[in-house]
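Comment on both lines for my students:
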Amino acid sequence: MFNRCQGWRSNDKTVSHLWPLVPFDGSEMSPTPAKLALIGFGAFGQLIAAHLPPHLRVHVIDPDPAAQSAALARGLCPAGIEVVGDCDWVLLAVPLGALRPVLHQIAPLLRPGAVVMDVVSVKEEPARLMQDVLPEHVELLATHPLFGPQSARTRLAGAKVALCPLRGRRWRAVAVVLRRAGLRVLRMTPQDHDREAAVGQAIVHYLARAMEEFAIPRAVTTRSFDQLVAALALVRNDPPEVAAAVLQGNLHAPAVGRRLAAAIAAQARGDAPTA
């Protein structure tokens, strides 16, 4: 494997279509590779790195020695936070609880025209933080890849990505690249995202936590039950910070949780279902 800190081309041709050469504005391609700062190299950061092309000079920023070792093992370059000032793209693969301090760290370092993106599972709070903390001379794109290391273990084609443009125009090029890679791009506002996610995500997490109260039967089960258990296992094994973002970081989730609990209680009492 080549050292991608230097922007050399890898021999892995399976992912090179995921990101174009710099610049991403549709103008004539530059012979100079774009530089991307990937902040956070946990499970999701490593998933992202596996699908970045050899055209990028990727700098991994994570103080965890294990993360730095993982980056080196993949031919990526561990770096300090100061490298952000030399990067065209900054991808924040950090949990919601770590986002504010990271934004304050990078704010004075960002170069004019840089594009900053997050991948937090909720969008209203990250969008607010990025707009409040980061300077006006950078572009902002809030994103939510609707998949994770477990669900995207074998393939990404057909998976969905929510894009919430906040500032600038280069999000359109990102959308084009993602579509070419076979992903389904959903453009929406952070508010619309979180309202839908309160049902589409939070309910699954609530059910997964509730199922922990039960011993799962192994013999007397139906196919639908087995499929339900398998689906809930995908989120039950998520890192705690993911569940925290989905359930506590989404302002709409508590109301959905209460409505879900009330609906289950009504069914248990034998009440007639409401319209």
